[in-house]
Amino acid sequence: ERDISVYCGVQTITLKVNFCPVLFSGYTDSDLALNGRHGDAHCRGFINNNTFPTVVIFSISLATLESCGNALVVSTAQGPNAYGNLSLVQIGHISGYIDTPDPPTIISYLPAAISVKDSNGTFISTLNLLLYNDSSYIQQLAIPVAGLTLKTRVFAAVKATNLDRR
């Protein structure tokens, strides 16, 4: 909750993103972009090494707010003015997100069952994908409930059971 700070100014909204979690996740400052607009240089942040901790800064001009995909919704409500009288007050709701590019490949696994019919009847041949911690395929990988951390080395083996000699 302290990794992002938002500063609302009269002409600019400034977002400061703690750079350490970004770096730990395997990304750089140039991988972060507003609302998936990775191709637009003005929608990406820039790193500021002069602060502690180091931050990635996004400056969003209110004049060009929607150019990077941010949404502005203005609603009107009754509220007291400076003199204590009720008047109409306009409230601006600005929304958007910062994300990283999609990985080039997505790895997932599901059990696969192959039914094979031969002259003597039917049998099920099952393919299993087994995950290991080591390249010798001895220590099976235990996946925590929260998932694996990025850049964890995983070794995969495919095992077929209940096959005939063909």
UniProtKB/TrEMBL annotation:
It comes from the Eukaryota. Residues 8-99 form the ZP-N domain. InterPro entries: ZP-N. Pfam families: ZP-N. This is Zona pellucida-like domain-containing protein 1.
